[in-house]
């Protein structure tokens, strides 16, 4: 297994809507193992494919880190089909090192996705796990959590985001910023 480079805010692939997953590449198991290793190495709970440079609509998550009755999952072509409630909490992101902000998200969501066996599944998630999924689905749609903060908070973040974008333009990745 290998630790992959996590792309920084400012990298073009992070602002692009990812392409739906059709055929899985032959080395997909290795890609997934490397993504999980990368996520764990940075104490993450979820990681979107475009964060490691893949233009594919999927993300991984290990809900077992928060709820022992759940575990690791791969979400292919995820789509939030229902959302209700609103709750504000702090978020961070592997592509935005050292930035944390309070973000309002739906409290309960229903997610439709394909699992690795390519079966269509629907699950209802709430609270923290719903937040994780909303965060990762946003990534796949080219949206950062900083896009969801108030305009005032975003103005305070402007110089930090500009700095990260400059680092990304130099070819640096999240591990280079720590």
Tell me the overall shape: globular
Tell me the structural class: alpha+beta
Quickly count the helices.
3
Number of strands: 7
> Assembly type of the shown chains?
single chain
Provide the CATH top-level class.
Alpha Beta
Average pLDDT, all residues:
95
Biggest sheet architecture: 5 strands, antiparallel
CATH topology: Peptide Deformylase
Work out the count of structural domains: 1
Strand content: 25-35%
Strand order of the largest sheet: 1-2-3-6-7
Provide the succession of SSEs.
HEEEEEEEHH
Gap from first CA to last CA: 22 Å
- Residue share in helix: 25-40%
Superfamily at the CATH H level? Peptide deformylase
**Rg measurement, Å:** 16 Å
CATH hierarchy: architecture: Alpha-Beta Complex
Low-confidence stretches: none
Summarize this structure as a short list of keywords or feature phrases.
178 residues, alpha+beta, five-stranded antiparallel sheet, 3 helices, 26% helix, 25% strand
Descriptive account of the structure:
With 178 residues, this protein is α+β, with helices and mostly antiparallel strands. The protein has a single domain (12-176), classed as Peptide Deformylase (Alpha-Beta Complex). It contains three helices and seven strands, in the order H-E-E-E-E-E-E-E-H-H. The protein has helices at 28-41, 127-140, 151-169, and strands spanning 46-48, 58-62, 72-84, 87-91, 101-105, 108-114, 120-126. The strands form two sheets. Strands 1-2-3-6-7 form a five-stranded antiparallel beta sheet. A two-stranded antiparallel sheet has the order 4-5. A hairpin with a 5-residue loop joins strand 6 and strand 7. The chain is globular, with a radius of gyration of 16 Å. The model has no long low-confidence stretch (mean pLDDT 95).
